[in-house]
Amino acid sequence: MHTLRRLIALTALAVGLGGCAGTLTVPASDGDGGPTGPAPAALAPTQDGGSFPDAADAQDGGASPARDAAPANDDAALPEPEDPFEPISPRLQRLTVGQYRNSLRDLLGVEVAAELEADTPLHGFAVIGGGELTIGPRAAEQYEAAATEAVAAAFADPAGRTGCAQPEPGCLAEFFRAFGRRAWRRPLDEDEVAALVTLSQGLGEQLRDPWGGVAGAASLVLQAPDFLFRVEVGQDGPDGRQLTGFELAGRLAAFLWQSAPDDALLDAAAEGLLDTAEGLRAEAERMLADARAERGVLGFFAEAFTLDQLPGLVKDREAFVRMTPTLGAAMQGEIQALLRWLVIDEDADLRALLTTRTVFVNAELAALYGLPPVEGPGFTAVQLPPRHPRGGLLGTAGFLAVNAHASVTSPTHRGKAIQNQLLCFDVPPPPPGVATNLDGVGGDAPTTTREKLARHAADPTCAGCHQFMDPLGLALENFDALGAWRTTENGHPIDARGEFRGEPFVGGRALAERVAATDDFAACQVRRLYRYALGHLEAYSELPAIDELALAFQADGRRFRGLVLALVSHPAFRAVGPLDEEAP
Amino acid sequence: MIVKRPPMSRRAVLKGLAATVALPPLEAMLNTHGTAWADGEALPTRFGVWFWGNGVRRQHWIPNGEGAGWQPGAELAPLQGVKGWVSPVTGLEIKTATHPHHSGMAGILTGARYQQVGETRDTIVTTFAHPSVDMLAAAHFEGQTPFRSLELGIARQTGSDEGTSFLHLSHNGPNNVNPSEENPQAVYRRLFGMAQDTRVDLARRSVLDGVMGRIRRLQGRVGATDRARLEQHFESVRALERRLAAEAPECLPPDDPGTFPPVEGREQLAANNRAMSELLALGLACDLTRAFSVKFCSAGSGVIVHPAGARNGLHQMCHDEPAPQPTVHAAVTFIMEQLAVCLQVLRDTPAGAGNLLDHCSILCTTELSEGNVHSNDEFPILIAGKGSGRLRGGIHYRDRGRANTSHAVLTALRGAGVPAASFGHGPGRVDTGIGALET
Q1: Predicted-assembly ipTM surpassing the 0.95 threshold
Q2: Which residues are CB-neighbours of B50 under 8 A, at least 6 positions away?
Q3: pTM, full prediction
């Protein structure tokens, strides 16, 4: 049974037991902890927090993440698919706020100030909400205001915008053909073009302003469902129902650029180049080389690890004198810099995200981490020595702080985030009627967070689920709710012992290495990228495709770029099921 | 034409309200008793929901005494000043409970189970299977006011990916939401900042007609689920188009309320609540809408109630704070002070011979009874307002048979004059209200 089948089995087991009750231990697979970071600018860290625990292994740094890929783990051979892949019925994909704003930027070069309804992320991703939610009355008002603002800015120089000296029908038709194709991600029918020209003229008369009429018709283009939703209905062919070239262009641009396609991509669609896996892959390679790809790649990780919450991070100012209005954004900046380096520049084995010893700090973070001061507005790469307890995503203040409360840590939240975001293991919520107060066990008031959580382990009602979360998060107790190192809590020494899949260990680095060494970590990132790329939670019938991609990812040394290319050229990226006949 | 009433003399009323000073209504608008408009048409009744997340502390919530002679415990004490308009309903239970927060949210607001979104994860992501109760009222009032409904939020919404049941209050249907606006300035601009240029409005309507044509055309190419989603899009655009076609109500806009961003990382909850309450009163007095909701904070909210001495999120404190949870209790008391502000502003706003609160029926509730045990019995419910004489007001009704919460919701709905035969679905459905609360 390989990785994803095992995940499904775990899920089924948990459901079958009514939540998490019961003992569930899965031995960690073998494999080393992945590569370690290089030292772009190695500095000696100061250790102002006392001695560090010994658990972090002494694996040395100095290697490039790109050439230090670990050998593939078990299960490298492709299995026989047990069930055939079946795509789900198509769903209109409402643009996310980011996709909407990026599209206006790329189409018209404008930034709109108008407020838009915030995304409703589902299953971790705004795009999944985009595939489920519709446009309510308030959102329609906001789209009207935003489109009006966008065209007002874009038509400040109408002749320059349209390429027409005068708003005469023939030239306007050319303009709407080109603009409409970009906005609606497909060529317009001639009657659609004619309708826009006619509307321009009618509005021009109403407003007694011919160019104002053209701007008004352009605002229709931006308010039409053809723009606000990605339409991916497909058409029947010899290999089943498939997205058309233009629909694939829209899907690719939304995934990789979080925006609308450019003319080159639409030209490729028109020429039939996207009808083959090779052609799609070639376009994706071109798009990944474009600066806009950072939106898609960093956007995935930002949502996968809830990094978007960091700029608005709320912490208790009395408990944390280091908390400032800029610290949350700095924490986000560190993780973005780490991802840019590991994933985009180096295309390293993705496990390095957990095991690297390189951190990226600005002045504020260097102080928080107890490192020597750094200069400049950006983030400086610093390599930590082997026995330093920090390093990797789990050692970033961003991960530690966003998964903590305002004044105190939450080993439960940190453990849950590791299970959910890194291993795709979902821990269900407590059932109704269960007292959740943490009054302590044994009468005495608890002195540390570990003691407070003792009831989670002692009470079988709690332990069924909390055994999967608390023992992971407790290993990170040396990091306070802001992510700073500490050796005591309320005057009591920190005990950073943890347990992962039945094996005891001490401290955050040991935890990170154990998580990275599982097959589940890599498989989980594949699964989550599939959700992000396709804009829906996978159905059971799509799991064979995800299995294939996960095995290919592992065999390829877990390179994110290779995964993206494998995903867009996989048949699942272009297949859709039949239109649904009845709303569920 | 949506706004039927010639609003000439309301200018004066609203001008006074801009400073939230109660002015007597001009008698020219009313009949000689001040109980109806001069032409005999009844004064409008409004339906609202005032919601907060994470429940209450039961021992401080349940009033002493029943009927008209009830006395508030510590958590209802802030409502003493409007007690005559407030009817606590205690002892009821959500009949569709399986999950602590989600069941309570869907249960109280739709009288039904939630709808799970996605089947391949062992986690809870849900939406409402049916419209929320405020939208049942909005459907009844449809076409009588420029805005179908108004959704206000006080505390900032924080991240969650657990679905619309957790993030939003007002639902038109599954995954079809009316998000709450948390910025008073945005509410102000929406209600009072409408363009009045006839020529521009005509052009906007032409564009919106074109958008509706595009929606109809796309509906022919998609599956049934997407056709339904596009139908809502169509309705949304049509509502805007109709509003532009109607005569704008002649409300003198109040002063711009400004915004209340966090100070030193602390939300200005009380200031935001007061600004929103005043905008709500103005919007209702001007008859811009008759259906509204105020979401003080969402189900399971992590709002940090600093004025109550809290240093961590409310949801976490409900989970962690040792008994008897004094900070949670202080937070609930603070939230009831905010409800009291809202009700007092409505009471101090004239309407006919009485005030706005006389002409409202407001369901005030949360998604569970006690946060630390996630219980769905002994559900916290208040019905505020007198529903234009349909509701007695000031009665504590206590049920001893763990009856369905939907009885209270149906009472509130009917209190606003909505002729609902029943409320809820499946085990949550009822067809009788609570007679003791009705006149």
Answers
A1: no
A2: B293, B294, B296, B339, B342, B362, B363, B364, B365, B384
A3: 0.90
